[in-house]
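Sorry to interrupt, but I need a hand with the structure work. It will help me judge whether the discrete encoding reads sensibly. Write everything out right here, beneath this request:
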Amino acid sequence: MAEMSVQLVAVERRLWSGTANMVVAKTTEGEIGILPGHEPTLGALVEGGVVKIHTTDGEIVCAAVHGGFLSITADGVSVLAESAELAHEIDVEQARADLTHADEVERARALARLRATGHSA
């Protein structure tokens, strides 16, 4: 099966890099599914979105992302987020608690954190 190089990077650190079969992300234009050989594209990520990376090892790396860009080139995919958290790093109870005292932006972030872990509000 074809594969591509993928990087998931936030301002403060690199969260994940490796090879993948597919990447799914939500941009300001809608949800996009990226397979190897995809046309070069640059997209703005939504606030409070979730990125899923289907690795060549059969795992799914899931992250809550907050703003930034998605760059698709012949070399692969780079997700450059303003901030991001891998699903296994998210404290679900804290994310739920954050929802109760959140403004609109904070609420979007808390909801993305919950969706990234497979939970709902």
Remarks:
- The CA atoms of residues 41 and 72 lie 5 Å apart.
- The helical segments are 92-100, 104-116.
- The mean pLDDT is 92.
- The radius of gyration is 14 Å.
